[in-house]
Amino acid sequence: MPTLALPRSRILGTGHYLPSIVRTNADLAKMVDTSDEWITERTGIKERRIAPEGVVTSDMAAAAAREALAAAGLDASQIDMIIVGTVTPDVPMPATAAFVQQKIGAGHCPAFDLSAACAGFVFGLSIADQFIATGQMKHVLVVGVELLSRVTDWTDRTTCVLFGDGAGAAVLGPAGPGRDGAKPRGVLSTSISTDGSLAPALRIPGGGSVAPTSHATVDQKLNFVHMKGQDVFKSAVKNLYSASANALERAGMTTADIDWVCAHQANKRIIDQVVSRLEVPSEKVLMNIERVGNTSSASIPILLDQSLRAGKVHEGDTVLMCALGAGISWGSAIVRI
Ligand code: COA
What we know:
Elements: E1 9-17, E2 21-24, H1 25-29, H2 36-43, E3 47-50, H3 57-72, E4 81-85, H4 96-104, E5 111-114, H5 120-133, E6 140-146, H6 157-160, E7 166-174, E8 186-194, E9 202-203, H7 215-219, E10 226-227, H8 229-250, E11 260-263, H9 268-278, H10 289-292, H11 299-309, E12 318-325, E13 329-336
Parallel strand pairs: 4-5, 4-6, 11-12
Antiparallel strand pairs: 1-7, 2-3, 6-7, 8-13, 9-10, 12-13
Helix pairs in contact: 3-4, 8-9
Bound molecules: coenzyme A.
């Protein structure tokens, strides 16, 4: 009996937004006991972007979304669902996605936030893919956006050198039949996981039901990101490799079939170790960490959009995405552009 393949989803357009303020390693060396040499060597980061006062998370998300819609040739009214991956929402309630819906002028489509930290975009892509593949939705907007500078302790050298602000977006829709003889485009596979036992390794301890915001929580800096860097590092190398291997297997592929790796830009050393284990040559690895730092859920869609607009990644190229962050949550996706 012939097997009935579900229709595929495809990325129809991407966009990104980076705020204009640049904070260099030299700037940070004036704020905390660090140096350009240490940051560059240990992370690969040279500078990051900081959102100016008055700019909020949904502003950046909407800017990236408008670019993605234009690239997809769609109007906001054609969007059936909005998923915003973020751990730095405009407000605790309602969802940042609701503000994005209003700012881009979308209709009354479901709009919700997804809390998977740095893995937020890959989780969102996976959810969007399911809704499109089952025919429930036609066009889904997935945004990864973070305004981490507002939850960063700028006196803590172990975290403040890492993060940056930004947004990236993708509009997904049905892949369609594709061109005769061409390999099928679209989301070929995804793999997402969470290990909650590692939750304490990366968190914002205050501001929730455990420690509601009070003078004491602010005095203790519980409203900022706290991270056990080495624990996260080890988990990242192990799990980004396994998720990528998993997604490749599900797509019936090997790393030889991959044109580009578009990994979460957390630390150049993590990416180097993961691609080395996957045996992917360095010329196939997309990278922008030097200029944008770790933008959490925005990382992959910013890098993908920059690479597409620069003409580096082309239609028909197969991209392996992988990301890991607080949760600890991680995931991978194989997408043919
Ligand atoms: N400048 C100078 N020295 C610094 C520093 C900085 N910005 N940050 C830490 N150090 C010091 C530490 O205090 C420590 O000093 P000590 O040996 O005297 O105690 C030393 O450098 C080594 O610290 P360590 O934490 O072992 O460094 P590391 O090589 O593990 O690098 C991270 C730290 C944070 C860059 C790294 O652990 C990392 O990238 N972790 C993963 C982050 C991540 O992926 N997050 C993902 C999701 S957001």
